[in-house]
Amino acid sequence: MNRFWLGSLLAIGAAATGTALWWLREPPAPPTIDSRADYRLEGFEMTALRKDGSEGFTVVGPLLERDQDAQVTTLTEPRFGFPGEAPGQRWDARSATAWIGPDNDEVRLEGGVEMLAPQEGDGRQARFSTDHLSVFTESERVRTDAAVTVTQGRSILQATGLDVDMQAKTYELLADVDATFYPEPSGRPAAAAGDSRR
Fold first, then answer.
1. Which of 129, 47, 34 is nearest to 90 (CA)?
2. Is 117 exposed, middle or buried (0-12, 13-18, 19+ CB in 10 A)?
3. Most exposed residue of 17, 146, 147, 158, measured as fewest CB within 10 angstroms of its CB?
4. Helices (DSSP H) in the chain: which residue ranges?
5. CB 77: neighbour CB atoms within 10 A?
6. CA distance 101 to 106
7. pLDDT 10s per residue in the chain (198 long)?
């Protein structure tokens, strides 16, 4: 056998061996998935409905995870919109994380929480800042027992604990109320200092 045929047979044998090894190699390990989450959504947008079929809230964010055992949903950096009393009115809220209960009837926002009420007729909006709060979608109420700051126009109120009626657009500061009121540019009279109910 001449060298040409010998070299050809060796090349074919080497190729066959390489192909066999490639097919027999161990497959790569699948990516690790949190066993508590039955699904994850990235870059999501979701609308949750109340029991009567009306909108409970909309939410967008970079990450959503559903815990199949506890039947709860956890969110990272969510931005919520809760319907207001009139069509087109929204209560906007954001936080570092959030938790949604099994029936979508409670939303817990945690870490750097900011909530913005719908605009008033004069264009002002109340802003609530706190560490954590809960929104109850069926009763349309917002509550927290944490320290909270409320700003509206040029007025600043600080307190411990908050209860908001989202339909009536009223709120009650529960304890340790400290209020600072500045005159509005239009000359509108300011509320009395220490008044804890809007």
1. 47
2. buried
3. 17
4. 3-24
5. 15
6. 5
7. 555 544 554 455 555 555 544 445 555 544 444 455 678 999 999 999 988 889 999 999 999 998 877 788 999 999 999 998 888 889 999 999 999 998 889 999 999 999 999 988 777 899 999 999 999 999 999 999 999 999 988 899 999 999 999 999 899 999 999 999 877 666 554 444 344 455
